[in-house]
Amino acid sequence: MPMQAPKLVILGRDGILNRFREDHVKEPAEWESIPGALEAVAKLNHSGWHVVVATNQSGIGRGMIDMAAVNAVHLQMMKLLAAKGGRIDAVFFCPHTPEDNCECRKPLPGMMRDIAERYGVDLEDVPMVGDTLRDLQAARAAGCPPHLVRTGRAAHLTEEELAPWLAAVPGMVVHDDLAAFASHLLQQELASRFAV
């Protein structure tokens, strides 16, 4: 019998799980979770969802942070999550600068395609959550249902400023934060289970 593909969600990192910093998160102490975000991941996990992070980390390519520091930051993130009863299955990241013209830097879909290959999933069944137009364009390019959280860089957008994003990424669903996204996804799942 073929193995069933896991239920998977892709999240951006900065501005979704933790507070966005213009100067990059360079050490574990600078990784500060957004209220309710870690609990939202745990809630998804407890409902059978696997959570994977896809993040642009151009600070590596710019020489602002090295791999040891990135690993230490992610270890801190995992520890804080574990304390809330949650986990992230994997962190995929693009270390390149925009000038590198790589395939993996969002808004290109390379990271999401790598995730699909690793997990054996169809991306049209994998919601992707971001806080920038670039994240949403990456979701659309990969074929993932796009979800915007109004935390991080999208926190202060007015409805007028958001309108071009909605036009650029049809089907985008907007949530206040990751907790609201998690509730939406679980309600949607419940509704589809009872649909005739």
Q: What is the structural class?
A: alpha/beta
Overall body shape: globular
Largest β-sheet summary: 6 strands, parallel
CATH homologous superfamily name? HAD superfamily/HAD-like
Reported by name, the CATH topology is Rossmann fold
What's the overall average pLDDT, rounded? Answer: 94
Would you count the extended β strands for me?
A: 6
Q: Largest sheet, order of strands side by side?
A: 3-2-1-4-5-6
Count of domain modules: 1
The sequence of SSEs as H and E is EHEHHEHEHEHEH
* Terminal residue distance: 26 Å
Indicate the CATH architecture: 3-Layer(aba) Sandwich
What would you report as the Rg, rounded to the nearest angstrom? 16 Å
Helix-strand blueprint:
Layout: E1 7-11, H1 37-46, E2 49-56, H2 58-61, H3 67-83, E3 90-94, H4 110-119, E4 128-130, H5 133-142, E5 146-149, H6 159-168, E6 173-175, H7 178-194
Helix pairs in contact: 1-7
What keywords describe this structure?
single chain; 196 residues; alpha/beta; Rossmann fold; six-stranded parallel sheet; 6 strands
Structure description:
This protein has helices at 37-46, 58-61, 67-83, 110-119, 133-142, 159-168, 178-194, and strands at residues 7-11, 49-56, 90-94, 128-130, 146-149, 173-175. With 196 residues, it is α/β, with parallel strands linked by helices. It has a 6-stranded parallel β-sheet, with helices on both faces. Helix 1 (37-46) links the parallel strand 1 (7-11) and strand 2. Helix 1 (37-46) runs parallel beside helix 7 (178-194). The protein is globular. The two termini are 26 Å apart.
